[in-house]
Amino acid sequence: MQQSPYTVSTEAILKKAFAAAVAVADPQLIVPQHLAKIFPPGQEPKGKCLVVGAGKASASMASAVEAYANTHWPQVKIEGVVLTRYGHAAPTSKIQIVEAGHPVPDQAGMDGAKAIYALTNQLGQNDLLICLVSGGGSSLLTLPQEGISIEDMRKTTEALLRSGAPIEEMNVVRKHLSAILGGNLARVAIARGARVEALLISDVTGDAPADIASGPCAADYSTYLDAITILEKYHLGKNEIPSSVLSHLAQGLAGNKPETLKDIDLVNAQVANHVIATAYKSLEAAADYVLSQGYEPILLGDTITGEAQEVGVSQARLAREHLAKGLPKPVAIISGGECTVTIPQGVKGRGGRCSEYLLSLFAASVDMPDLAALAADTDGIDGSEKNAGAWFTSDIRKVSQNKGMEPDSFLEGHDCYGFFAELGALVETGPTLTNVNDFRIILLNK
Known about the structure:
Rossmann fold, 6-stranded parallel beta sheet, about 40% helix
């Protein structure tokens, strides 16, 4: 992380709490543990083993699978293709790692998704498909249904991003345009008589397999009608969404296109989805750490959503209420969940939802000068820049005041990155090679 001239104990606690949250979701630790449970001694894979996947953590997951197989399954032939975001690769020798565009899909991602689809179609009876899934997989696994181009998918994704639609709603639309998402990859493997074991690192609230990277191997609860309703909700019509996409959804609604995978399709199928890391487990790890430092942890949960600026104001109000009651000991308020940032037309903005939340909290807590906080994305990248997020302490607040920096003007321009960069208060980890959503912590001292 970036070094700061304003090193104080609260800064160290903020950063070490975040590090604890990330460490507990490290694929190199958790993937081997779960493979040992799924394939106990005497039940190792017997046929061909195809490893595929997508997401910001998928390359590290693939590296862990390959290392485990080399030691425990030396007789098993392993091959595969895994897609990850640019800059998030990990070393492998048997599994090909493809870096591609995220959150807006590109040709590299589509070519990689085609390769995954083709290899899955080559599976046979008793072969094994290991699917490695993590946040970011929805846009990386872009293989449109017939008649929809990659450019059409890109335009649709960009329109949804601009609309402020939460990721859950974006993914409902993408599932119904994809040949892989919404359980369609598992459907291919089932038809070939193969066994499917999916390992999932969750970055979504609720940790439902159908929602993690749009569930390539999970039964889907959403329908074509849901996808169309979402576009209508955000007033996305023919001016924003390509005609091929609108036509495909209309045909699906009419019953002329197959629905995504449903529970009934999994009867007698060998398909299992294993959620191996979650945001809540990471929040608990951070709570354990701050407890060791004398703080009373208060976990708000991993399901906090909404506009980042509004969440910042809300949590400042919560902190104020705790201080008003009097603190018998220092308190750490810890939360997760994915906020959104709606950018007005004509505003470029710099940063991401974590930094935006933090700047809003900073502005709304001016009456609490000793409040300290950090917000960062556990994948190491928060939005448009290369920082994971940002932090502040009372010292950072004093420096901002001495510089005459007005947080409200930065909030209006959605330039949270510029604000914290000027103060040397960015969290910079680089890609962490995992992803369990956003992490937020507020420290309140007596």
